Amino acid sequence: GLDKPTMTVTFWRSNSSGSQPSSQPEASQPADEQAKYTLRVVRRSEGVLGRLNDDPYVFELESTVARVLTDFVQQDQQKVLATLSADQRPSAQKLLDQEVTIVGQSNHAGTTPMRLRHDAGYCAAAIGHFLRQLAREMGGNQVATMGKVDLHPNLINVIAARAKVTVDLRNTDDALLQQAEQRFAAFLAQLASDEGVKIETRSLARFAPVTFDRGVADLIARTAQRLGHSCRPMTSGAGHDAQMIARIAPTAMIFVPSIKGISHNPAEDTKPEHLAAGADVLLHTLLELAA
Question: Is the domain 94-207 a CATH 3.30.70.360 member?
C-alpha cells in the first residue's frame, strides 16, 4: 500500500500569490510563508494511487506517476473540469450507512473506578478510532466516517449511559466494502464483550456502485476539449441522484473544482469561471445529445 510508496516527492508551496509549488523551497522565502506537502505514490494494477500528506489525493489515474505530479502542480490552472470515468471501474462508490446504538450504564464520573465502568461514550470514541484505522489499513478507495454522535445524559460529570453514532462506509469495490462491513461487525462484537455494553445496529442506506455511460462521458470530454477546457476522468466518492438515474437511462456527470477541495461545508466555494465552464460544457453536451 501507500505505507511503502514507489515514489515520494516533497513540495514547498509559497503562500504568496502567483507562485507555484516546487521541489525545493526558495532560499529567500521565510519559513512561515511556506507550506510543505509530501506526495506518496504507488502503482497498482488498477492505476496510480497517491496520498497528499495524510489525506488521499489521487485515487486512480490512467497514466504514470508524472501525471500525478502534473495534476498537483497545475490543478488550479489547468484542471477546470472533471468527467466521471466510464470504463469498467465503477463511476460512483457503493454506500453503506448504519446507525449504531450503545447501551451502557450511567454512573458518577468521580466515584466510579475505571475497571467498573460500562461507558457508552468511550465506546463511541473507540468506534471512531477503529473506522479511521480500518480505512487506512485497507487503503485504495476505502473511506469510513463517523458523522454524528449523540450521548445521554450528556452531562460533564456523568458517565454516558447511551450513545448513538452514525457510520458511513464507502468503496468502489463491492467485495472490499463487504470486507470492511464484516471487520466492523466483528469489532463491535468484541467491543461489546470487552466493555460490558449492548450494541445494536440499524441499516440506514445501502447503494450498489454504478458505472456511467461511456458514450455520454466521452461526449462530455470531447465537448470540454472543443471548448478549450481541460478535463480528466474520475470516480465519484459521493452518492448523487445520477447514481439512481443510471439504472434507467444513460448517465454521466460533470464536476468543477471546489476551492481547496472543500465540500459539505459553509466554506465550500468554486471560482466563477469554473462554474461558467461547467455550465458551458453541460449546455453544449445537451445540445449534442438532443441533435
Answer: yes
